[in-house]
Each structure stands twice: as structure tokens, then as C-alpha cells.
Amino acid sequence: MLAAARADGRYEAEGWRVRKDGTRFWSNAVVQRVVDQNGVFLGYAKITRDITERVAAHETLLQSERRFRILVDGVVDYAIYMLDPSGMITNWNAGAERLKGYTADEIIGQHFSKFYPREERAKGTPLRVLETAARDGRYEGEGWRVRKDGSRFWASAVVHPIRDDAGRLEGFAKVTRDITERRAAHEALRESERQFRLLVSGVTDYALYMLDLNGLVTSWNAGAERIKGYTANEIIGQHFSRFYTEHDRAAGLPARALYMATREGHFEIEGHRVRKDGSLFWANVVIDTIRDERGEPIGFAKITRDITDRRDAEIALRQAQAQRAHAQKMDALGQLTGSIVHDFNNLLTVVDSYVRKVKKAGADPEMKRATESVELTLERGAALTRQLLAFSRKQSARSELVSLAERVEAVRGMVAGSIRRAVKLVAAVGPDIWPVSVDPGELELGLVNIVFNARDAMPEGGLITITAENMQLSSDDSAAGLEGEFVTMRVTDTGIGIAPDVLPQVFEPFFTTKGPEKGTGLGLAQVYGFAQQSGGAVTIDSEVRKGTTVTIYLPRADMATALQSAEAEQPTVANVVPLRTKGPFANPSGTD
Questions:
Q1: Which residues 6+ apart lie within 8 Å of 199 measured at CB?
Q2: So what's the pLDDT on residue 589?
Q3: Taking the mean position of all CA atoms in its chain, how far away is CA 414?
Q4: Is the model's pLDDT at 362 over the cut of 80?
Q5: Which of 585, 431, 430, 429 is nearest to 522 (CA)?
Q6: Where are the alpha helices (DSSP H) in 286-423?
Q7: Which position has the higher pLDDT, 139 or 312?
Q8: How far apart are the C-alpha atoms of 470 and 427, rounded to whole Å?
Q9: Mean pLDDT over residues 280-290, rounded?
Q10: Which has the closest alpha carbon to 290: 282, 302, 298?
Q11: How far is CA 537 from CA 105, 426, 487, 531, 562, in A?
Q12: Which residues form the Histidine kinase domain (predicted)?
């Protein structure tokens, strides 16, 4: 050290030095030669600094850099390399070699723009990437890149500027990843989603839409717009409960539907729903819960179908089946009743002939009273057969043109004396009502039977109303399923009504809800037979504690045909007594 300092004037070196206590430290030592004014050598000046910490930090940094280089060089899934400020490649890792195909010797010193396709270079993309990174402190983007063999891959690239302590740009650090497979999967997913959206949007027979967890509409397809009437802009963000009726909302059905879908994963129901214009339709609704990867619910998928036509068809089919079954039952009862009445009427004829012989032969007072009693019984039997024949439609019709206004007024006058003061009978049948061609006796008897049933249904009093109107019916207009021009006559009371389970049986013969000795159960059976034989029908509507309405449909008379058939046929039963309103047989039926 001294020799070098004396010869050269200065010597500097670093190395371990030893303190008095034997400990070592890393020193920086400078030895300088000392001479006088005449250049005579006097000795040496020595300066020693303890730089142990600085050396240790430097060693740590070198070790860190070495490890970082090892780490970078060991990464094979990412291309990690450095660029100088002009974009020239200054280092190259194993991942870059694997990804781009160049070795370090082949690529270091080359411009990084060679990794870009020709069209990107022509647009100046490489230069723009470096400018953005230098200006913003970072650049990140995706695009096509080119390998050494000319093949392309889709890359995700991140570029960071490298600056010194003074902030001067020293170069760029660039990390590139090959995400071709991920992009392909993403494109496939996006295409699948696009096709699914097109499919959903193109469906017009189903309302397909999404709800969030609170029930707010988040998507809306064309089918939903067609069925419910709302456009997407009008309904997205609104609560789906607006599709429910006020009654269903008050009952909490929307919240219950989401609760059931969340609990079970699937919920299906049918019911009325409301369109934008307020109209109702019958809907089939399916709600499925949508969950994320962890199984947590994130919303609901809802499918609604308008099945109003299908439901109406099912109801119409059930009604038709019920009507057919009822008609078959009534026809069977009519055939049975007609057969029985025929034999019963023959017996009455035999008894009547012997009574006539006894009366002609003369008899003592006791025998006279006996024959009168038998005649009275025969009259009751004749009235019974008349009603049974009317039900079975085996009695010959004695049809003639009838004015309902006149006949109803006649019946009102006849039954007035048999109605309690607490019961009020009102008839409102105008003269403009079409004429009908019916058996006038059967018409009057049917009205009497209905009025007396109404009277008996109002023990505390009430109101009986008889009305009529002209109607042009189609098969869908009435419960009777009739078509054409008809006169509809209604007898309405404010009585106790008829229970729903009893209502289907009221037209059957001998069916009555009255006590023993209070009715035969033939009154409404007679009305049914009269309406059927007249070419019409009869229906009954009733609500417990509110009253009953019996509606008779009679076809409008064909005037020309009616005039040609003016001569009435004789009834098959000779012993049918005239209609009475007083005495023991004022109410021939006594039925409901």
C-alpha cells in the first residue's frame, strides 16, 4: 500500500480491518503521499472509513437482484423482458423464449415492434404503447402478436416505464401473456350468451324475464311485452307485484312466490294476472332461483304463459260433459217416468169408468159421498200424471200463439189470493215481448209452480219479480247453450236461496227439500219438461240467504208456422183438471 502510494501519489483499497478488541469491519482506505514545498518526501496521509453497513446493503441488493433474475428467468408462462427508451430489447427471459420463439441471442438488440402484426405496425401501435406507458405510468392492452414462426396468438401486455432517481426515463419493463384459449372461451361464452339473448328475445309466446332478490324486474323479452303490454323501458326496475291483482297483493302472494322459489328452488302456480291496460288473463307461472358459484341466491328467472284460451276450453269441456251427463240422466228419468205414468194412467182410466157407471146407476147418499171422494182422488191422480207427462215430454203439445204479457198478468191475478200479505208479486212484461208458441196451460202451470216455490222460500216475506226480454242468443251467451231468437222469462225471489249441493237436483221428479205432506217434488220437474218440450230450456241460479232466479228460455214463434198449426191436439190424458188457485189442489206440485 505504502509503496504504491509513494510511487503513484495515491492508493485506495477496501478490505477487512481489525479493531483493538479483535472485531472486524469493512473499510475503505485512502493513502496519499506527503511532500514539502521542495518535493521532499515527508510521509503518508491515511483516511479510513467504516463502510460495513454500505457493503452489507450492497451485498443484499446484489443477492436480491440475483434472485430476481433467477425468478424472472424461471418464469415460463409469462414473457418478461426489458426495453430501452427507444423500444430496443435489452434482456429476455425463458418465458419470452417459450412464448415468442426467439432465443435471447436472436432477439436482444432488436426492436419490440417485430412482435406486432404488419397492420398494427402500419398504424403505429408499438410507438403509441410506449408513449402511453411513459405518459400515464402504465399501459395495459390486448391484441394479436406474432411469434418467430409467423403464427399469431392473442396477448395481454403490460408495460411499465423504468426511471432513475432523477425521474429520467431509462427504459420499459414489459410483461406479455398468451391468453388465446381464454379469449376463445370468452368468445364462445359471449356467442352463446348472444344466441341465448336472441332466442329469449325472439320468443313471443312466453314472457321470459329476470328479477333481482327484491323482486325488481331486471330484463324483459318480446314475449313479456306482448303478453303484459309493458315495454322494457316502462317495466325494468319496477316490482313484479304489479302483475298481480289487488286481492292477491293484499294476500301477500308475490312475496310468498319468491319465498317458495328461494326455499324449494322452483315454484309453479296458475292464477289471474293483470296487463298494463288493467285486463286480466289466466297465467301459468314458473319461478326458478338463480344462484352463484357458491350457491348463494342472486335473483330469479320467471316464465309466464297466457293460458286463458286453454283454461276456457277446459272449463267449456267440463261444462259440456256435465250438461251431457245431466241431459242423459234427465232423459233416462223421463223415459222411466213416462213408462210409469202410462201404466198409472191406464189404472186411473179403469177406475174412472167404474165411477161413471156407479153415478149413472144412482146410489144412496153414502155411496154418493164415496164416489165423490173417489172422483176427488182421480182428479189428484190426473194432475199428477199431467205433471209427470210434462216432465217426460210424452204429453202431446197443445201449442198456440201466446202473448206472455197477457198470460203473466192472468197468472198474477190467479195466485194473488194464495200469497201472504208479506209477499209482494210484481210482473213487468211489456207488450213488445215477442210472441211464443207454447201450451198455454202448461205455461201457466209452470209459472204457478215457480211462484209458489218462491212464496214458500220467503217465510218472513219478500219480493217476487216476473220479467221478460227479447234476446238473440249464441251458444256462449247463456247457460242453456241455445242459439237463435228467444224470449227470456225470469222469476226472481228474495228468499232463503238453495244450497249449492242441492241446486243440481231441483229439476228431478220427486226431489224436494220440503217436509212430508208439503210437496210432491214435481213442480220444477213440470217446468223443466214444459221448457224442453217447447224447444227451449230452463236454468236456475241461487245464492243462500240472497234469493233465487228461475230463467225460462222460449223460442220466438214463427208466425207463419204457428198460424198453420192453429188447431191444437188433444192431450193424451182425458182427466186433466183445469188450473185451480183455491182449494186443496191450488199448488199441484209443492216442490222447490
A1: none
A2: 39
A3: 58
A4: no
A5: 585
A6: 308-361, 365-392, 404-415
A7: 139
A8: 16
A9: 94
A10: 298
A11: 106, 23, 11, 5, 20
A12: 339-558
Average of per-residue pLDDT across 157-174: 92
pLDDT on residue 390: 61
Mean pLDDT of 176-192: 84
Query: What's the CA dihedral at 133, 139, 144, 146 to 10 degrees?
Result: 50
Q: Which residue's C-alpha cell is 238473440?
A: 472
Cell numbers linked to 301: 328467472
Q: Please, what's the b/e burial string for 184-195 (b: 16 or more CB within 10 A of its CB; e: otherwise)?
A: eeeeeeeeeeee
DSSP assignment, residue 583? S
Question: Residue 472 is which amino acid?
Answer: Q
- E-strand stretches of 393-499: 400-402, 423-428, 436-438, 462-473, 484-493
Instruction: Give kind and range of the element (H or E) at residue 263.
Output: helix 253-264
The alpha carbon dihedral of 130, 131, 134, 139 has a sign of negative
Instruction: Report the C-alpha gap between 93 and 391 in whole angstroms.
Output: 107
pLDDT above 90 for 230: yes
Euclidean distance between CA atoms 225 and 236, whole angstroms: 11
> Is the model more confident about 250 or about 312?
250
- The pLDDT tens digits for 325-355 are 766 776 776 676 666 766 677 777 778 877 7
Query: Could you tell me what percentage of the chain is helix, strand and coil, using 3-state DSSP and rounding each to the nearest 5?
Result: 40, 30, 30
Q: At which residue does the C-alpha cell 342472486 appear?
A: 298
Is residue 290 within 8 Å of 210, Cβ to Cβ? yes
pLDDT at residue 582 is higher than 60: no
| Entry pTM | 0.42
253 neighbors 244 (Cβ within 8 angstroms): yes
Give 426: exposed, middle or buried? Use CB within 10 Å, 0-12, 13-18, 19+: exposed
- What pLDDT is stored for residue 292 in this prediction? 87
Question: 523-533 vs 365-392: helix axis angle to the nearest 10?
Answer: 50
Percent of the residues in the chain that have a pLDDT greater than 70, as a whole number: 82
Residue 80 CA from chain centroid, whole number? 57
Residues in the chain: 592
For residues 310 and 316, what is the distance between their CA atoms, to the nearest angstrom? 10
CA separation, residue 424 to residues 184, 467, 572 (Å): 88, 14, 37
Q: Which of 287, 141, 116, 106 is nearest to 209 (CA)?
A: 287
Q: What is the pLDDT of residue 106?
A: 93
Taking the C-alpha atoms of residue 214 and residue 506, their distance in angstroms, rounded to an integer, is 53
| Confidence band of 567 (pLDDT split at 50, 70, 90) | very low
